[in-house]
Specification:
Length: 295
Amino acid sequence: MTDAVAFCEANSIPFKTDLSAKTFSTFKIGGIAPLVVYPTDTEQVSILLKYFNANNLRYKTVGNCSNVLFSDNMLDCILIKTDLLSFLNVENEHIVSGSGNFLSKLASAALKNHLSGMEKLFGIPGSVGGAVIMNAGAFGAEMSQIVEQTEYVDAKGNIHIVKGEEHCFGYRKSCFTESDVVTKTTLKLIPGIYRNIREEMNAVKTKRVSTQPLDMPSAGSVFKRPDGHFAGKLIEDCGLKGFSVGGAQVSTKHAGFIVNTGNATAADVKELINLIQSEVFDKFGLMLETEIRII
C-alpha cells in the first residue's frame, strides 16, 4: 500500500490508513482497512481507478456503509469512500448531487424548494451513489422513479453518463457493476406544496421509528423481498424473531433486520444469515437473497 499512499499524496487525494471499519459501518462491525481514499471530484476518481487498474489493485466503493457487512479480518482491498463527493445544486425541478450526499440531505433540499418525489425515500440512511446503484426504495417508492441522469467512472478510469432507461433499473439493481464508481446523479422532481411534503416526510419518519430497530446498529433490511412475500414475515413465521448467534440477533422489532447487540462479529452475522436462509427454505421452499453487501 506504500506506493498507493505516495500516489494519493502526489495527487492531493485525501486518504487515511489503518482505519477500523467499525468507525464508519452502521453495523459497527469490521476489521482494519489498510487504505481508505476520499476523492473530492470525478477527475480524482478517474485517476485513482486508472492507477488501480494499471497496478492490479483491488478496490471497493462505499458511501455511508449503511448496507455493508465488513469482514472481521484485515480488509484485502482499498476502500474508495465517497464522503467528499458532496456538492448539491437545485436547478428548477432538478436536484444535481454528488454521490456522497445522504438521501436525507436531498429530501430536505427538495422540501426547502417545494419539490415532491422524495418523501417516501426520506429516512433511508444510505448515500446517493449507493441508492442509485441498488435502486433503493421504501414504502412503494424507488430511486428509478426520480433518477434522470447519472455520471460514473468505470474500472479503467473512463467517465460515462447514462440517461433514463439506460440505467436498466430493476428491483434492487441497475446497470452499474461492482467496479463502477457513481460520482453524480440528477433527479427530476415535481412542484409540490411545502405543507403536504412535510406531512408525508413526518409520516414516513414516524412509521420507520415505530417499525424498525433504528436505536441499534444494523445494516438495514438484510434480505431482498421474495416475489409475493415479505422476508421479515417469513423469518418471523419460522420462530426466529429474537434468535441470536453470538452478538448478532434477529431484531425483536422487525425480523427483516439483524442487529448488533454490542459485540457482534461478521462471523456471527454470516452464521445467522445462513441459519435464517436454511430455516426459511426448509419451511417455505424459498431461498432468501441477501440485500446487504459483504466486503
